[in-house]
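User: Protein folding is very new to me. Would you mind checking the protein record under this note? It all follows right here:
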Amino acid sequence: MLAIIQHNFTGIDGLTVSQRPRPHLTAEGVLIAMETLPVVPSDWHKETNPHATAEQAAQLPRVIGIGGVGTVIAVGQHRDQQLLNQRVLVMHPQGTYQEVICNTNPDWLFPLPDTLSNEAATLTAGPGTALVLANFIKQHPSDQIMMTGANSVIGLILCQLLGPAYPGLTPIVSPASQAYFHHILPDFPCYLANHVKTTTGRRLLVDIAGSPRLLQQLSANQHPAEIVSIALQSTELTVPFTFVHEDFDPLIYQHFIQDVTEQKLQLPIDRSFTFMDTQRAQHYAKDTHSRGRVLVDLRH
C-alpha cells in the first residue's frame, strides 16, 4: 500500500510516496481505509525539527500524520463488530498518511454520524487546543483579551467557543485576512495590530500566530499583564509567559463531533489536494494566509 514517508529533516520536499506492507488485522485491532487527512503545522514542524514534539516522531523513517477520517473495513474478534463499514475519526500517532491503518485503542476511534462529512478530519488538530486556550482565558479574568492569529483554524474555533459577546475579546488579524475573518464570523469584531484600542485594566495576550515580532509590537503598545502561547515555548519579553498544549481527552472529541453535527460549531475548510499532492498541500498550507484547514483526499 502507499504511504507518505519522512526520511530526514530536510522539510516538506524530503517527503516521498513509498510502498509499505499493509497492516495485519489483530484480535484487538480495527483496519481502517483512510479517506481524508488534515494538513496541520505539526506536520512540517516535525519534518524540519527532531525536537518539535515530545513524541517519538524523530525515529525515522516514519509515516506522517496523526489523525483523519476513514471507513472500517475489518474488525478483530475482540472489538465491537458493529464498527464494520462505519466511517470514523481516528487518532493514530504511528502515522495516518497511508492507505490502511490498524487501530488498537478504542479511545482513539470515533464513529461519525451519516450527516457529518469527511471534513470532520479537521477535528484532528485545532478544537482541542482551542478549548485549552478557552479554559485558560476563563481561569485568568482580564479586561482585554488580545488574540493573535484569530483568522487561523484554532483562532476561529476559539472565537466560537468564547462567543462574540465575551468581555474584552479582541481578535487580531492581518490586513490580508480581515475580510476572510468577517466572512466566516460576521458577528465578531476583529482588529489590525496597529488599530487595537488601548483599554484600562488587565490585558491578556493570547498567542496563536507564533510571531515574536508581533508579540514585541503588541507588548510595546498595549503592555499585557500576561502572555499565553500555543506556538512559542518561550519569549525574551519580560512578561509572565505560559506555554500550553492539548492533553488528549476522548470525551472532548465526542463533544466536538456532536457540536459540529448540530451546527453549533463551524469548522473552517480551505481546499483539498490529492494524496499524491501531499507535498504541494503542505506548501500551500504553510506558505499562504490561513483560509481554513487544508485537507488531503485519498479517494481521488
